[in-house]
Amino acid sequence: MAKRLEEILDSCLNTIKKGKSIEYCLGLYPEYAQELEPLLRLALEIDEIPKPEPRKEAVNVMLMKIGEAVIEQSERKLVLGKFFSRPFLTKPVLVKSLATILIAIVVVWGMGMVSSRSIPGDILYPIKTTTERVKFTLTRNTEGRAELRLVFADRRLYELLKVLERRGKLDEYALKALLRETELALDEAQTIDENEFKLFLTHLDHFNNYTEDVLNQMKPRISEHECRAVDKAIKVCQSRSKCMMEMKRRRGKNGGSRRWESGCRWK
User: Fold this and answer.
1) 79: which strand partners?
2) I want to staple 118 with a disulfide (CB 3.0 to 4.6 A). Which of 36, 50, 122, 207 is the partner?
3) Along the 267 residues of the chain, how does pLDDT read in single tens digits?
């Protein structure tokens, strides 16, 4: 069900990008409406926030300046332009709107910061994955989309280790997601410029090798049953390593293939 919900969420985000409403999307999947609605509304709120993410220090400075401005205006009764004949702070609607905007920015930013450290099973984890999907959907540059896949893969690897550390077991969902993200990273890189592709392939190869090393180090800490899933993932990493080595060898010979060979995809 979780995988089905993820696919539906991705589909709804693309539908909303084309101008449809949240209500329209909920009508397409009424059986998932209760789970979908809060995720879709959060996605739109994140999209409406200015793209550069504010640092904690910047937010504090902004709030201090606003506080100073409020005090100054209450003392001096400033008039805002020719369209306003009364001081700014005597307009309750404007004050309420400003407060609402500030609270929304701080709350959403704060939830994003907290959810970024969440792992599968945590209550804020869906916010983390929804934020990732929104960011990926809004990224138009092909190279940027490929690099984002690697960023997400690195997060899945972190989550895999954290779940093992906190709960003493292998999270097979995170393992599959990790392998899937690195698989999609190469798929996204099909049309990248040749020079940029060489750099990307090197980055992908290093991450793949690092993933294999981490998985090997995990084996003594997990059960025999869990080891079978990890062994399967290690074999996929080894196949990918050979495939990328062959890609590097063929670069310059009419470009060569940029696609995974048999055994490189997680099934």
Assistant:
1) 87
2) 122
3) 555 667 787 788 878 877 888 888 888 888 888 877 877 776 766 555 444 444 445 545 554 554 555 445 544 444 444 444 444 444 455 445 555 554 544 444 444 444 567 888 888 888 888 888 888 888 888 999 999 999 999 999 999 999 999 989 999 989 999 999 999 999 999 888 888 898 899 999 999 999 999 999 999 999 999 999 999 999 999 999 999 998 888 765 556 788 898 889 887
Cα distances (angstroms) measured from residue 38 to each of 45, 60, 95: 11, 28, 27
Return phi, psi of residue 249, to 5°.
-65, -35
Instruction: Map tokens 């693309």 to a residue.
Output: 14
pTM here? 0.60
